[in-house]
Hints:
With 216 residues, this protein is an alpha+beta fold. The chain has 10 helices and 4 strands, in the order E-H-E-H-E-E-H-H-H-H-H-H-H-H. It is globular. It starts with a strand and ends in an 8-residue tail after the last helix. Bound molecules: glutathione.
Amino acid sequence: MNIKLVSFALCPFVQRSVILLKKKQIKYQLEYIDLEQPPEWFKRLSPMGKVPLMLVDGEVLFESSVILDFLDESYSPRFHPKDNLTRAQHKAWIEFGSSLLMVQHGMAMAADRKALAEKKQQLENDLQQLVLPLEQQLFGHPDHFTLVDAAYAPLFMRLDLYAGFHQAAKVIYPKPIADWAERLISLPSVRESVVDDFSERLRQFLKKGGAWLVKG
Ligand SMILES: N[C@@H](CCC(=O)N[C@@H](CS)C(=O)NCC(=O)O)C(=O)O
């Protein structure tokens, strides 16, 4: 199959697909677009005007979780659990991860310290939900990579960078999450899933958006 991934370099939802493509050693092409001024062909193909957009032999796929499912079903090894119920649970937690990505975006873009603190608190509250499934080893097991790992690694990578940008953005994790996050961001497939100057580009992007996190 000919796989082409349409991307914006800083998008965590695109990064999920890149991690899986790398993990499965699938050959693919990457095309970056300017989301502020998307090309006409992209507007025609992307129903919601969002990346990731994946072209599979020219056929259009969108929504990061659907792209993950498609890649997993089409290329070995399979990372989604075989058992129907467990697989459905993994999909549900991936959806939860998407909501966390929206909260982290709000936190990063917060215009002042107070707004950042509020978003960080919301994120810390939401993250608590992950403790039980991690303790029950529903996912996050060091020996078994899953699509949940691919879906959450972009979140933890960003939170790690924000803490480096300003200590006010340091998210406090309960131990099972801290261990999982540390493991995920050190995986080669995760480290290699972003552009080389990712941190600096992210900083510039936030600065342009007036984020307090990178002011001063
Ligand atoms: N639910 C989508 C979210 C994708 C998304 O929000 N992508 C952002 C970039 S990170 C985007 O394309 N935004 C452009 C826009 O909303 O106009 C997914 O999981 O693929």
